User: What shape does this take?
Amino acid sequence: GKVEEEETKKGLGLAVLRLFDKRYGRLLLTQVTPANGKYGFLVGKENYILTCEREGYSWPEKQTEILGTKEGIVRKDVEMRRN
Assistant: This one.
């Protein structure tokens, strides 16, 4: 997946992504994006909640539900809005 600025579609570094187990609400994985904004989580075929934060930006969705794929990879694109 990729975290990018909504207007320019340019990748955003230093975004903090957190993946939670939907059933129990516990934090499973955390990643900070590099300068190009790309990220990925290796997961099983369960339901997850993805959150994304970055200083000076907001994500209108706040969080989104993710279903693990056959490949076991989470790769949802996230568009963040400048505050």
About this structure: Strands lie at 3-5, 16-21, 27-32, 41-42, 47-53, 57-58, 63-67, 73-74, 78-82. The radius of gyration is 12 Å. Residues 57 and 83 are 5 Å apart (CA to CA).
